[in-house]
Each structure stands twice: as C-alpha cells, then as structure tokens.
Amino acid sequence: MKYYFNKSIFHDNMKILSNYSSIKEKIKEVCERVGRDPEEITLVAVSKTFPFTRIIELNSIGHMDFGENKIREMRDKYYNISFQYSGKINWHMVGHLQSNKVKDIIAFIHLIHSVDTYNLAEVIDTTAKKINKKVDILIQVNTSNEPQKYGVAPDETERLCRQISLLENVNIKGLMTMAKFTDDRDEIRGNFRTLKGLFDKIKPDYPDFKYLSMGMTGDYDIAIEEGSNMLRIGTAIFGERVAKD
Predict the structure, then answer these.
(1) What is the DSSP string of the chain?
(2) CATH code (residue 78)
(3) Based on the structure, what is the number of domains in the chain?
(4) Which domain does 108 fall in, by range?
(5) Which pTM value belongs to this model?
(6) Is residue 243 part of a domain?
(7) Is position 1 within any domain?
(8) With b meaning 16 or more CB within 10 Å and e meaning fewer, what string describes 122-141?
(9) Which residue in 104, 128, 135, 143 sits closest to 208, CA to CA?
(10) Which residues is 44 bridged to in the sheet?
(11) What span, in angstroms and rounded, lies between the C-alpha atoms of 86 and 192?
C-alpha cells in the first residue's frame, strides 16, 4: 500500500502554527506595553468554517480553547474529534444561540458567550438540569447600540444579571461584547470601555465574575489596553475564511 504526503495540508498546518505563535507574541507585546501579565489573557481560537483537523493540530501543541458560532458546525466538529482524538478541548459558543438549539451542545459546552435574554438563560438552565450540569455563560452586551446586533443594552445589563443569577444550573462568569465594525479606533475603544465599566460595577456582587470577553483579530490590542482578559481570534490564526453556501 502506498502513502502519499499531502503538501497542501502540511503547508496549511504549518502556517496555522506560525500564525498562532505570532499572535501569542503580539499579545505578549501589548500586555508588556500596558503593564499586564499575558498569562491572564485567555485566547479563544475561533475555528468557524475551518476543518476539525486544524483544531486537532493546534490542540496538539497545547492550545485548549476553541470557538464556533454555528451550532451544527460545533456539534459536528465535536463528534468528529471525539471519535478519533483524546485531547482536552474547551468548546466556546461565540455566536448567537437559538433556544431550540441549546440541547445540541449542552453536554459538552465549556462556555456560552452570547446569552442576552432571560428566556435563553432559562432554556439553558432547564436543559442543563436534565443532565445534572451547571453551565457557564457570559452576558452579551450591545455596547455599540447597533440595532442589527444581538446583546442586552448596557443600562439593562445589571437587571438581566440579577434575574439570571437566580437560576440554579447557570453560572454567570462575566460579560462579552463585539465592538462596532469601523476604522474609528476611538469608537472601538469607547465600546470596550463601556463594557469594562459595567464589569467593574457588577463584579462585586458576583463572586464568579471572571471573564471580560472582548477583542478580535482587528481590535485585540485595544481590547487588551481596555482590560479584556478573553480574546476571540480567528483570522489571525486560521487565515481568511472562504464563504460557504
């Protein structure tokens, strides 16, 4: 039997590992510039649209946190990887989550970043109870006040946290936002600063508050400067995405 070496796959994997090393170094440089410890930053590698083999490749060098924004894609990758690989992976749901899809990921999800209504949190709670699991979530806040974006309004965030905190099988671990897609870095900074202000205000009442999830490939440096300790980075690691049908 002959075995063939796939140069294309090898090149793609090496490129991802190089990209990963580069972004880790850049994060370190930003942290050092602003007097922060890079070890306090959790990097979520957003692997959406890329094959599960890329996740295995990155996980094999020690990276554990991976994000997806589509339920079906996350579920399929989880099962494909689980059937043939024993590495420890923390799965993050970073996209909008529909209530009727909660059941598809509840058993293996590590952190849901995108809870923005009590109804969704209630479904997570009810579904988690069935398998005797407590699910960690972040509250998504629409700090840019864009009507097309998901997320609770900043001035409604405290009330939503209070409501959700009464649910037995849901743990609020912090806040998440996506800055406005703009070249105006001052506006981006303002979006992040709004979330950091909310985080600092709410945290004393919630001992489990740990994560401030903000910053992606185009704005992670600003996010770190404004206090983020969880970055969601895809393109800078995996490369440009090809749109799917």
Answers:
(1) ------HHHHHHHHHHHHHHHHHHHHHHHHHHHHT--GGGPEEEEE-TTS-HHHHHHHHTTT--EEEES-HHHHHHHHHHHHTT-----EEEE-S---GGGGGGTTTTEEEEEEE-SHHHHHHHHHHHHHTT--EEEEEEB-TT--TTS-SB-GGGHHHHHHHHTT-TTEEEEEEE----SSS-HHHHHHHHHHHHHHHHHHGGG-TT--EEE---TTTHHHHHHTT--EEEE-HHHH-PPPPP-
(2) 3.20.20.10
(3) 1
(4) 9-238
(5) 0.93
(6) no
(7) no
(8) ebbbbbbeeeeeebbbbbbb
(9) 135
(10) 232
(11) 37
Q: What is the mean pLDDT of each run of 10 residues along the chain (245 residues)?
A: 43 82 98 97 96 94 97 96 94 97 97 98 98 98 95 98 98 97 96 98 94 97 98 94 57
What is the tens place of the pLDDT at every residue in 93-149?
Answer: 999 999 999 999 999 999 999 999 999 999 999 999 999 999 999 999 999 999 999
Q: Position of tokens 């060098």?
A: 61
For tokens 């981006």, the residue is 188
Q: Kindly tell me the sign of the dihedral angle through the C-alpha atoms of 152, 142, 158, 206.
A: positive
Domain annotation covers residue 123? yes
